[in-house]
Amino acid sequence: MTSTKLTTLTRRSFLRGAGGATLAIPALPSLLGPAEARAALADDGKLFIPFLQIGSGVWSAKLCPDAAQPDEVKPYAGFAVQRTTLRPEVAGGVTRISEVLQGPSTLLTPRLVAKMNVIRGCDWPKPLAHNHAALGNLGAAFGEDTGDEMRVSVDQLMAWSSGFYRAFEGLYRTVQVGWGPGGVFSYSNPSARTGSIAHRSGDGARTPGKLFDLLFGRFAAPTDPAVARRPVVDLVLESYRRTRANPRLSPLDRVRLDDHVQRIADLQRRLTFALPGGCAMPGRPSADPTDLAALEKDADRLAALYRSFHDLIVAAASCDLSRIFIYTLPYFPVPSGILMHHEVEHHAMERDGIAQARMVESNRRIFRDVMLPLAAKLDAVVDAGGRTLLDRALLLRSTEMGEFDHTTTGQIFVTIGGANGAVRTGNYLDYRNLGQLAVPASTSRVPELQRIHLGLTIQQFWGSILRVMGVPHAQWAERDHGGYGKRVMGKLRFLHCCTPPPPEQFYTDKVWAAAGDVLPWFGA
Amino acid sequence: MRNRPSAFLARTLFLAASGCVGTIGEVGDPPPGDSPPPPVVTATEGATSGPSATPSLPAPLPPADALAACKTPPASRDLPLRRLSARQFVNNINAAIGFLIPAKAATIITEVKNAVTAFPADAATPPDSFGALGFTRADQLMSQRQADAHHEAAVAVGRALTSAPDRLQALFGTCAVDTNRDDDVACAAAALRRWGPRVLRAPLAADDAAFFAGAADPRRGGTTSRAGFADVLALLFASPPFLFHLEGGADDPAAPAARLDPYELASRLSFQLTDGPPDDELWTAALDGSLLVDGVYAAQVQRLLASPGAIRVRDLFFDEWLGLSARTPDPLAKIPFSEGWKAFVKPVEAQLKGAREEMIEDVLEMARAAVAQKRPVRELLTNRQSFARKPWVAGVYGAPAWDGIAPPAAPASAAYVGLLTRPAFTASGELDTHPITKAVRIRTQLYCDPVPAPPAGLSMQSERPKTPQSTRQKIEALTEQPDTVCAACHASLINPLGFATENFDGLGRERTTEAVYEGAALRAQVPVSTRTALGDGAAAVAADLLRSGTFESCFATQYFRFATAKRQEGPDDACRVSALAAVAKGGASVEELIKALVMAPDFRRRALPR
To answer: Which terminal Cβ of chain B has fewer Cβ within 10 Å, N or C?
Structure first.
């Protein structure tokens, strides 16, 4: 039987009240001795917590802060990029970074704002409408032949990288909660990095009760000593090996078996996993919703459901059961019952502004009612060195589309947390080439379509994420550039507006040469 | 085989090049609620070993007269190491419990239901086409969740089957309930030799029986024999032969294909036709080898096709092919969220409870009747009878509720032309009638044409209409503006298929005008039009589908995908699919087409995947 250790919390760990946000788990006593503490220091225990949103098309001006007077401007990749310190407005108990990014001042405190970044100007340099790319794999387009652009998503690169998990001793490499876009793409045999790349149902749960069962259920059940035996999984594993020896199976049959042997082996490891002695197990959520389809029609109920994952996630992170927690979010309908995609996002450019207002409110609720409360809870768990779980974490808002619906240019990313000091925070980072309009003579009647600026590549963004999270470049390197994912460009399109010049005019060799850098001001 | 290869090819190439914008059942059904996210499959699992595989649009099939190559056809390859579907997995466990302890089976199945049905539901896995619907059988991806769930189900079954002395004794004999733990392994081995092959659907060699029995070894812990016997069962149920189709190829690895042995054939046939393992009679035919005799095999096929399991499987096929569960709306669902819809349905709201299920059942009953009466495949499209047993849907048709015995009545209105005008195909469950969704369903499911994804930059700047407009008018304004990339596909290939049934409202009722609401207030009644380039109304679409056998060809293609668990056919499959299409176009019934597939040599051999 193997055991794990708490890598972060010591007996002096405590919960910090954060603006009224208190955590529903007790302080966790540590079992760490000095040697283990040193090991924990070596293994920096970063947490990656993406929030994957379907759709978008919220105009950047509504997501990003005003940056009329940037704090820094510098030449980069052939044009000027800029950084502006986040300076939210506070009024009426609300802290406001932008129309979307706002919340109660008790949660969105100056301390928390200082741990955020808003990132703009990293484009996927080819037109792409619907996709499963919120974790980087932009080959995962709907119904389009993009096979050679398929990549393992960044969460999976982290999950199976010794750079992220130095020595994996947790329960699950990744945990997914909720339901929404399928951004997770892995090899059929991720440990060997072989096989086909496809979306796979990861370990996770749609409801808090099921999440509890997944993470803590086995530890909650009493063991009857009369029947306590070595788990039979070792023999199951052996049965797979015996089957593999069948000479009539084809080589591809054996590949499938080998892939599954790896899964059985992982199951065996988990069945012998012992909850750390100092790990405080939370209670099982009392009520678990069953009619998720009905719930999906109501943004308030959706937000409440997603918030009820938070304590379990914080407890799991505290116990080091996993370090990657993926929130997959469906549409938060505004108003209730509306089909956000066809009835709202498809109308994002209508001049009466009704659709945009609904999209702003929907996105605001996800930030204010889901992402922000989790950040506050993570920031309430402090270790002996004064480091909070949030300090170790990188929360990332990522969406299917950019600032215009059905486009992947102009995507806005929001991060919270410092990835254990690897990320510099507190900034609005604008990587657009503000000196060059994408469409010099736009005829659009919509102001937002009159002044489109393109910027750096999304390959650089995801490469930066992998670098700050410690995944060695060799594990995701491309042949012809230093970023993540295939170097590809395609003729850009902004329908009902205009067609920009060829993408090479914007995504120049200088831009591609920069793709291997950590984004300016992003890395610490 | 398609008789209109040039038309199909033209459509395919146009769609590809234009860049247009653009559960049934009881036991064995996966549980609701924890289904995986929307399906995204980029490669047939295991079909390639490289870092990625390139999906492509389905290749058009060669015309009939160009199939000389089919006289010596390329081998249609089987998928590597197919696994049972979630439904088959549950059925397999329940059937095993049934023959292990028949007297207690119902109780035990109930005891393990939660653990067994926790096996992740399969995702309907479509071909490479935007908006296409696929089959759950084609979800051959394996995941950690499945591995975990399989194991947990096996452990639960092992515990349940040994949870009382009478169960232990029934399975293992008196040696399992005595106080001597030293004979537990031998006791288990003896029992395994009796029923182990049945559980695993294959012979059990002596060393394999000894291996499984080893799980009962007292040295593995515990203080009672019972836990050891539970482990034996858990190991058996968790082993690869239980979850996968372990079909051997030829003994000579260089041979391209090999005949299945009788056990493999029994298993393949049974799961194919009934979604369950071989029953007693089929198992006996495997045991004595007679299943390899053509006449015996044909008799088993005929017998299984008449079984209740086969009816459920056909229901599953029709449901997934036509997107019945996936696309049929619940008219009550939108009421709380739309004042206009609430007002629109108010006069009939009390009748709408269960309407969704009845709309689905209307199509399934029609399909069941077509199968039972051995009607030609094309009548799935053209049958006009109302199979609605409840007043609401029957009332939509203007027909009396069907009693399930007498021949169903046909609607009085000629507007109801068959499948395309059944409420399950026309109802949207809201004021907007969703012509594009209707059209994509027809294009992908009935024509088998791929539809490319909408291009990037789909931003609409339409003005809100100053005068009341029909859904068609709004869609035309959005998608058919001259010289736009949208119009390239929508104007000719998508919208007409949906506009053709705009004479049906959101509840599937025939109409001549469309009610336009502003809030809860009826603002106007706007005339609707069903005239398109194909002609007038759904009848024109049906005629286009029937012309040259497009409908039958597509049906054959869809059934081939369902039967082989392939999300789409590959070039090597062209001859098999063409042969099936020829059967369908020759006037064969659904059952005859199924028989043609399972009687073919390809079905009875294993062609090694590559």
So the answer is: C
User: Closest chain B residue to A349 measured between Cα atoms?
Assistant: B461
Of A341, A143, A125, A123, which Cα lies nearest the Cα of B460?
A341
B257 pairs with which residues across the strands? B607
The DSSP code sequence of B202-217 is: S---HHHHHHHHGGG-
Tell me if A183 sits within 8 A of A328, measured CB to CB.
yes
Two tokens, residue A340: 């956000």
Q: How far is the C-alpha of A320 from the C-alpha of A393, rounded, in Å?
A: 12
Q: Of A25-39, A123-137, A431-445, B101-115, which gets the smallest average pLDDT?
A: A25-39
Q: What tens digit of pLDDT does each residue of B429-486 get? A: 999 999 999 999 999 999 999 998 877 666 555 566 779 999 999 999 888 988 777 8
Cβ pair B311, B368 in contact under 8 A: yes
**Residue that has been written with the tokens 């407009």 in this structure:** B469
Whether the CB of B141 is below 8 Å from some CB of chain A: the reply is yes
A216 to chain B, closest Cα gap in Å: 15
* Closest chain B CA to residue A197: B52
SS3 B199: helix
Q: A201 and B145 in contact by Cβ < 8 A?
A: yes
Interface test with A, best of B18, B20, B144, B224 (most A CBs within 10 A): B144
Average pLDDT over chain A, rounded to whole?
A: 87
DSSP single-letter state for residue B604: G
Q: What number is the ipTM of this complex?
A: 0.86
- pTM of the complete model: 0.87
C-alpha distance from residue A264 to each of A228, A269, A493, B151, B296 (Å): 21, 9, 47, 9, 40
What single DSSP character describes residue B441? H
A162 interface with B at CB cutoff 8 Å = no
Least confident of A395-399, A439-443, B5-9, B375-379: B5-9
Instruction: Give the C-alpha distances (Å, rounded to integers) separating A425 from A112, A371, A399, A517, B246.
Output: 10, 17, 20, 17, 54
Question: Are the C-beta atoms of A378 and A388 separated by less than 8 Å?
Answer: yes
Across the interface, whether the CB atoms of B456 and A292 are under 8 A apart is answered no
What span, in angstroms and rounded, lies between the C-alpha atoms of B426 and A366? Answer: 35
**pLDDT bracket for residue A25 (50, 70, 90):** very low
Are A407 and A508 contacting, i.e. CB atoms less than 8 angstroms apart?
no
List A94's β-bridge partners, or say none: A91, A104
Peptide bond into A335 cis (omega under 30): yes
Given the structure tokens 């479509």, which residue do they identify? B126
Q: What is the pLDDT of residues A464-514, one digit of tens each?
A: 999 999 999 999 999 999 999 999 998 887 765 677 889 999 999 999 999
Residues on chain B touching A492 (C-beta within 8 angstroms): 456-457
Is the separation of the CB atoms in B580 and B563 below 8 Å?
no
Q: What is the DSSP pairing of strand A89-91 with strand A94-96?
A: antiparallel
Contacts of A17 (CB under 8 A, 6+ apart): A380
Find the helix packing angle between B294-305 and B308-322, rounded to 10°.
Answer: 70
DSSP code for B341: H
Per-residue pLDDT tens over the stretch B376-432 = 999 999 999 999 999 999 999 999 999 999 999 999 999 999 999 999 999 999 999
- The amino acid at residue A476 is W
Q: How far is CA A36 from CA A30, A41, A57, B14, B299, in A?
A: 10, 8, 47, 64, 69
d(CA A225, CA A35): 34
- B49 interface with A at CB cutoff 8 Å: yes
**Do A188 and B211 lie within an 8 Å CB cutoff?**
no
The helix-helix angle for B262-274 and B590-599 (nearest 10°) equals 160
Q: With pLDDT > 90 as the criterion, what percentage of chain B qualifies?
A: 75
